[in-house]
Specification:
alpha/beta, seven-stranded mixed β-sheet, single chain, binds flavin-adenine dinucleotide, 17 helices, globular
């Protein structure tokens, strides 16, 4: 644990990208900031690891908003860091492969044309659906800028008026699930599978999530050097403006006095006072573990307990001695649909479940030794899969857990041979991250990869909390998960703290 002062203006709990964004912007404005991170490196999910010359990203396949005017670029510009990172513009957003289709998603127009050729009987529905997606994405942009928490009374009234009278698509689809909307538009199950796998939330998630993606920018960027490079540049933003990052520093408690946050207590029992606390930690943990139920209303606690979490992930990272370029791949990540049924794709049946195949070393050759390549297989599997992955009663991971992880990985590798023939015979290195490990690395409850589950009509938590001087930044709050969203979330939290500090 680092040698820390006993008092700061702001303590940020967690060095995920949302926490780092808040910390860096507050430090730049002259506040004395500590970011306390329990892990051994900054970035949260947005990290890379090295093994035998291979670099593997834990999360982050594509990042939106890295162009001038986008939230990532603008934040880095504000922190004077745009020269410290190189974003590679990707050739396509994704490539979706299934029974009788192989589609590269580059723009909404190209997607519409390709799908109409494949499914001519559904042409009218394709145009109508994508038209609604475009309109909804425009509405969402107008509703989300600026963040509701930063608006005064007149601004908030304006927002309500915009929602009631200027957002017909949001009102129409906000309370509906993706599955419901796709069923209404399309008879062809493969179209539902294609649209429904643009984002890995599944058919039960709120429809506007998928529609907003489809109606917006479809092709993102990749940080040269991998996800870790992105975490490092945001860390530099913190430290170059005088903020401190303390790694291996776990917060055990948020100190509360007279209903307001006054600092934190670390696991070693030491206390650090602060005027403000920003939590980048999991939404449940922040309140139920760090604040404590005794400081919260029973209604709020009930809501936290009853709100579902997003599903966790299972990631197999492989170093392979294959020439993937010669095999026809270009680094575009592949969604490999092995069923036409969206419900089956988001089931736990390994032969049919959601799978993406990433080949990041084709984007950035420094990620694999010469003549080698990286392949990552990603699927969504729950925390409680097969009896909590064979975890022992005392919570430890025994031989059974390892065997189970190996078996799941083995099945996914065999299935991925439908795309990369011979894959299993060319593995040089293999790493597995199961839901239990996702939880261990980030303390996100049950390894939830995307914060709260975005149920239709669900509530989005804001940066403000019921505890005075405690704010939240990151995927568990507005505007939601992904780097594109947690950076604005971190910005909002920083702006609210600054407004408070200056008032
Ligand atoms: C497999 C996968 C693929 C993804 N793909 C993409 C993608 O392609 N594009 C994209 O934009 N997004 C993607 N995401 C989502 C994106 O990575 C996350 O939404 C984002 O990184 C979350 O950032 P965050 O700021 O909320 O913090 P998190 O990454 O959740 O980090 C929280 C941090 O807080 C720390 N912490 C927690 N509790 C404490 C405590 N008590 N004391 C001290 N520290 C604590 C944790 O150790 C962690 O470092 C993906 C996620 C996953 C898992």
């Amino acid at each position: 644990m680092a040698n820390l002062k006993d008092k700061y203006d702001v303590v940020v709990i967690g060095a995920g990208i949302g926490g780092l964004t808040s910390g860096a912007l507050l430090a730049k404005e002259g506040l004395d900031v500590l970011v306390a991170e329990q892990g051994s490196k900054p970035g949260g999910y947005c990290v890379s690891s090295q093994r035998d010359g291979f670099t593997f990203d834990t999360a982050v396949d594509a990042v939106m908003g890295c162009e001038k005017g986008g939230p990532i670029y603008d934040t880095l510009e504000e922190l004077a860091l745009t020269n410290d990172i190189d974003f590679i513009k990707l050739a396509a957003g994704t490539r979706i492969i299934g029974t009788g289709y192989d589609i590269s998603v580059t723009s909404i127009e190209a997607l519409a044309n390709e799908l109409k050729k494949l499914f001519p009987a559904e042409s009218t529905s394709i145009d109508a659906f994508l038209g609604d997606c475009k309109a909804l994405a425009r509405e969402m942009e107008r509703l989300m800028e600026p963040a509701p928490d930063l608006l005064g009374l007149t601004g908030k009234l304006g927002l309500i008026v915009r929602f009631l009278f200027g957002s017909p698509k949001m009102r129409k689809y906000g309370g509906k699930s993706a599955g419901e909307v796709l069923n209404t538009f399309f008879k062809e199950p493969r179209l539902r599978a294609i649209f429904g796998t643009i984002l890995p939330f599944g058919p039960a998630a709120m429809a506007p999530l998928i529609m907003n993606i489809l109606g917006g920018e479809l092709v993102g960027y990749y940080p040269r050097g991998g996800a870790g490079a992105l975490a490092n540049v945001f860390t530099k933003g913190l430290t170059k403006h005088g903020g401190e990052l303390a790694l291996k520093t776990r917060v055990a408690r948020i100190l509360i006095k007279n209903g307001q946050a006054i600092g934190v207590e670390l696991v070693d029992g030491s206390r650090i006072k602060s005027r403000y606390v920003v939590s980048n930690a999991d939404g449940r943990q922040t309140f139920l573990n760090l604040v404590g139920e005794q400081h919260l209303s029973s209604k709020f606690v009930r809501e936290l307990r009853e709100t579902s979490l997003s599903r966790s992930s299972f990631l197999v990272s492989l170093g392979v001695d294959l020439d993937l370029k010669a095999m026809g791949f270009d680094g575009t990540s592949i969604v490999y649909n092995r069923s036409d049924d969206l419900n089956e794709i988001f089931s736990t049946d390994l032969t049919k479940c959601y799978m993406t195949i990433r080949m990041h070393s084709l984007r950035d050759s420094s990620q694999a030794p010469e003549g080698m390549a990286t392949v990552q297989l990603h699927t969504m599997l729950p925390y409680d899969y097969m009896g909590n992955w064979g975890r022992e009663k005392d919570g430890t991971l025994g031989r059974e857990s390892t065997e189970m992880e190996e078996a799941v990985a083995g099945k996914l590798i065999a299935l991925a041979e439908g795309i990369i023939p011979g894959l299993s015979e060319h593995i040089v290195v293999k790493d597995i991250i199961s839901p239990l490990a996702f939880e261990r690395y980030t303390l996100n409850s049950e390894g939830a990869t995307m914060g709260w589950f975005p149920a239709p009509g669900g509530k989005m938590r804001s940066q403000k909390t019921p505890v005075k001087n405690l704010y939240q930044a990151g995927a568990w709050t507005f505007p939601g998960p992904s780097i594109y969203m947690v950076v604005p979330s971190g910005r909002n939290a920083a702006q609210i703290v600054l407004n408070e500090a200056r008032s």
